[in-house]
What does this fold into?
Amino acid sequence: MGVLSNIEPKEVFYYFEELSKVPRGTFYTKKASDFCVEFAKAHNLEYVQDEVNNVIIKKPGTPGYEDSEPVILQGHLDMVNVKTADSDHDFENDPLDLFIEDGLVGARNTSLGGDDGIAIAYAMAVLASDDIPHPPIEALFTIDEEIGMGGAKAIDLSDLKGKKCLNLDSEFEGVLTVGCAGGFIYDTYIPFEWSEEEGTKITISLSGLQGGHSGAEIQKQRGNAHKIMGRVLNTLAKDYDFNLISINGGSAANVIAQFNETIIVADSEQTEAILGAITELKEEISAEFIGSEPDFVLTARAVEKGTMKAFDADSTSRVIAYLYGVPNGVQCYDRSFPGAVETSLNIGIVETTENAVRARFQVRSSMKSKLEDMKNQMSMWCELVGASYELSGEYPAWGFDENSKLRPMMIELYKEMFGTEPTVETTHGGLECGILFDKKPDLDIVSFGPNLLDVHSVKERVDIASTERSWEYLKAILKACK
It folds into this structure.
């Protein structure tokens, strides 16, 4: 008996639990891809596993639907790997430790992978069924969506006959997503020179922030550990003498940074004053959040005295200036969809290498010209601090289709089933739909899904009741696609 064996819909949660046993972090999806292939073989279904490990599984239509146009069910295999600071979970080998609490499914001390494991589970439940009326199914499982959408970029769609595409990668029940932002990854490399500095080593630790998805939750103004650390260091630099030794934190470009650990060497005579100033800053910053970051922790401790290797003064100044001044968060709201974010960026990872501090950003916008403007702004900041940069993982926006036939059908069906009209909106989060549409312009795409809470964080949860309602909705959509 599995942990999820007694909750409905059983067939969906069965496959979700099976998938949760398979390591599938971004760039480590071979095992998950093979899991899909073994599933297809076990059910005697036609499949293709391409050279990058995307998988397409096909199933004929049920009686009465044999000649219907196929429907594409699409989701991604990879998940964002996040764990608590004290967790020893090995994401490349260990299964997730699932639990049920208060009507939600979670994973102990790690992210859950509901984004987008629930899509794979839905599709597998349809593919394995013998009692769900449906047209021919073309299930498309892509890899490495979370960083760069490499699977969608590599996939060959020429063999797909379907024009209706249900992307199952949305996180809010009752919301039909019909467009998304485009974006790119921006890596900044701030070079530094080493020097020998005498003083006291101080470790500054910042943790306990909520984090979350930089597309879905950037507008919530959650604390970003790197920006807060930049503020702390900039404030200290006004009154005290110190050099950076290292600065590291964050888990992914598209995750709002929850932690940062910075090590400095300071004038020993100023050590106690620096520790006191950091305590005061902690109280000041906590008060600014007005309770929205209740677990925020900022601590500092003196480690040792002596002569040690550190950044020279100029390098220290440039790194602090960059972290403190570089833009982050929401830059502009969408004038066509009031309340929706149009343009944002998130500094997700900061790490110290042998000769540079790398800062990795996820940049997003629903307007191509704004993406270009963000590139220009980021390049300007690089010039100001003598940094270089690399651009990667670009993906196009997915525009609203006024002529969609799938969208109005799904709206009416939702109203019939639930007695209320669904919300129709675009999302600031990146979806593979734009890439798929570029490859196959005749696609009519709508994205939907159940309620997923705090994705890309250790608090990630799947709402059980919402999963069941969305499952019934999916089945009704397939039945209507005759």
Observations:
- The mean pLDDT is 96.
- The first helix runs from residue 10 to 20.
- The two ends are 37 Å apart (CA to CA).
- Residues 25 and 142 are 13 Å apart (CA to CA).
